Amino acid sequence: MILTILGGGGFRVPLVYSALLADHEPGRVTELRLFDADAARLGVVARVLADMAEGMPDAPTVRLFTGLSEALPGTDFIFSAIRVGGLEGRAADERIALEHGVIGQETVGAGGISYALRTIPVVLDIAEAVKKHAREAWFINFTNPAGVITEVMTEVLGTKVVGICDSPLGLARRCLLAAGIHRGAAAFRDGSVEIDYFGLNHLGWLRGLAVDGEDVLPRLLADAGAIESFEEGRLFGASWIQALGAVPNEYLHYYYFRREALDADRRAESTRGAYLARQQSSFYNGLRNGNERGAAPARRSPTSKAALRLWEKTKLDREETYMQSNREAAGTFERAPEDLVTGGYESVALAIMRAIRQGEAARLILNVPNRGTVAELDADAVIEAPCLVDAGQVRLLPARPLPDYALGLVVNAKAVERATIHAALTGSRRSAYKALAMNPLVDSVRVAQELLDAYIDHFEQLQYLR
Predict the structure, then answer these.
(1) Is the dihedral of CA 326, 421, 89, 45 positive or negative?
(2) What gap in Å lies between CA 77 and CA 390, rounded to an integer?
(3) Which residues of 7-133 form beta strands (DSSP E)?
(4) Half-sphere exposure of residue 128, counting CA atoms within 13 Å on the CB side?
(5) In the 8-state DSSP scheme, what is residue 339?
(6) pLDDT 10s digits, 243-272
(7) What gap in Å lies between CA 148 and CA 41, rounded to an integer?
(8) I need a labelling partner for 188 at 20 to 30 A (CA). Which of 38, 210, 376, 396 fits?
C-alpha cells in the first residue's frame, strides 16, 4: 500500500512514520511518498526518518517528490498537512490581529480567516490534481482550519474526503484518566469506549463518555477536584464545566475567556506562531548541512541518530509550550506528562486506513458533511462528530440535538466559515469582510475592515480579493 503526505517536509511527518513502523498488520503501508515544494525541508525530514528506520529491514520505503503530479499516481491514501505561507505567515496572522486589539489565533480568530483565505485556492488546485492523478485514493485532511478545508475538498472529491483532529480524542482520554479509568487506544476504536462529542472543528463539546455501556462523565462532572485534575478542567474551571454539563474543547477557551486570553497574548514575549517559526527554523537549519552542529554528512556516525535526537528534543519543547498563553490566562499551570505523549493526528489517520483497508469497523471523531445530523445546519456543512468507519465508507452516527449552550456558537461559526469559503471561491472582498465582522473574536465591524485591509496589504496570496 502507498501513502502520500502533502507537506511531507513538515515537522510532524515523523509521527506518522513512527506509527507506520509499528504497524505489522496485513496490507500495511510499504511505500511512503513525501511531497513538498521545499527540497531542503524534505531532505531534513528524510534524515529523521532514516534514523527512525535504522535496523528495521521491513520499514516502509521513503520517496521524495517536489512535483505533485509525480507523487500522486498509484497512491492509496493521501494525508494533507500543508501550511500556505509557512509559520512566518501564522506569525503575521497573529501579530496583525493583536496590533488591532483582537485575538489572532490561527484557526478560531481573525488569523484563522486570513489563513483559510490563503489556503483554499491552493487546496482547490490540489483537489483537481488528485481528481486527475489519484481518483481512487482516500484523502485525509490534517490542514487547518480543518473544517473549512475539508468542506472545500469535499465539493471536489466527494465522499472519499475526511478531516481529522486530535483534540477530541485527547480530551476524551484525559477525562477517562481523571475518572480513574485506564483504557488503551484500541478501546476508542472498537466501541468499548463511546465518545459523545459534537460541534465543529476546534468548537466542540464532550457531553458523554460511555465505558462498556455506562456513561462515566456525570460521575466525573460531580467531582470538582477530579475536573481540575486535567488540562481542560484547569483551563475552564470546575464551576463553568459543571454549569455546562459538558467539557468544552480547549479552543473554546478563546470564546469563553476572551478578555483573559487576549490579555495573556498581549503580555507574551511572542505569539505562538513567532515562537514556532524560530524553533523550527533552528531545527531545519541545524540539520540542513549535516548534523545538528552543521558538520558535513561524511563526519557523522551512521549510528548517532543526531537528526532523530534533535527532532525529539524540538518536539518535546513544542508539546510543553502548547497553548501556553491560555494556561497562563487560567492561572499558570504546566502540562501533565501524559499530555505530552504522542498519539494524536497520526493515530486517528492510521485507524481510518486500517478500517478502510481491512473492513474492521472503527468509531472515530471526524470532520464530515452533516447530512442531517445537526438540524440547524444544511447537509453539506462539515461538522465534527462521531463516525463509524469501515470498508469503503464513513458514516455519521446518530446524535442528540444541539443543546442551547452550543447552538448559537455553532451556527455563527458555520456562517463565518461559509462567508470565508465564498470569499475564496469568488474573490469577494465583501464576503471576506463579512466573515471577519461576524467572528465573535472580532469585536467591531470597523476593526474587521481594518484587519482585512492589513491582511491583504501583508500577504501577496490575498491580492485576489477585490
Answers:
(1) positive
(2) 15
(3) 31-35, 61-65, 77-80
(4) 5
(5) G
(6) 999 999 999 999 999 999 999 999 988 899
(7) 27
(8) 376
